[in-house]
Amino acid sequence: MKKLFLSLLLIMSVALSTYCQESQNGQSVYCEIIGEGNFSGKKIKVEIFFGEVTNNKIKQQAEKVKSKQFTSMLNALNYMAKEGWKLEQTYVITETSGMNRGCYFHYILSSKISE
């Protein structure tokens, strides 16, 4: 019984130390893809926002993305996935008043960068 308890304790301590080391190795950064379109989905404008950028790697990526034209949210999401970004959350805001009825699609992405 003591051997089983010590084995479990050892395994848990190794797993915990591995998790702690992983979280110290990188910092999470976030970006947002915003798509503006109408209900038919035929016209959509896609923009990617990085916020205030302080890391050189993210600055280079932000400059590279500015020159890209995306025809759909999925194209933008696939491009960002190839660049190492992970989808965290999505939500839609619908505008139902006025002449410009449409949707705003928001995709929140994250990436790990070394400090």
Proportion in helices: 25-40%
Could you tell me the number of beta strands? Answer: 4
Task: Summarize the helix and strand pattern as letters.
Answer: HEEHHEE
Q: Provide the structure class.
A: alpha+beta
Share of residues in strands: 25-35%
Largest β sheet strand count, sense and barrel closure: 4 strands, antiparallel
The tally of helices reads 3
Q: Span from first to last CA? A: 44 Å
Name the average pLDDT.
77
Return Rg in Å.
Answer: 21 Å
Q: Can you tell me the overall shape? A: elongated
Q: pLDDT under 50 segments (min length 5)?
A: 14-23
Please give the order of strands in the largest beta sheet: 2-1-4-3
In short:
With 115 residues, this protein is α+β, with helices and mostly antiparallel strands. The protein is 39% helix and 34% strand. The longest helix is centred in the first third of the chain and has 24 residues, at 2-25.
Can you give a write-up of this model?
There is one protein chain. The termini are far apart. The protein contains 3 helices and 4 strands. Strands 2-1-4-3 form a 4-stranded antiparallel beta sheet. A hairpin with a 6-residue loop joins strand 1 (27-37) and strand 2 (44-49). 39% of the residues lie in helices and 34% in strands.
Tags for this model:
elongated, 34% strand, alpha+beta, 115 residues, 4 strands
Write the layout of secondary structure elements.
Layout: H1 2-25, E1 27-37, E2 44-49, H2 56-66, H3 73-82, E3 86-95, E4 102-113
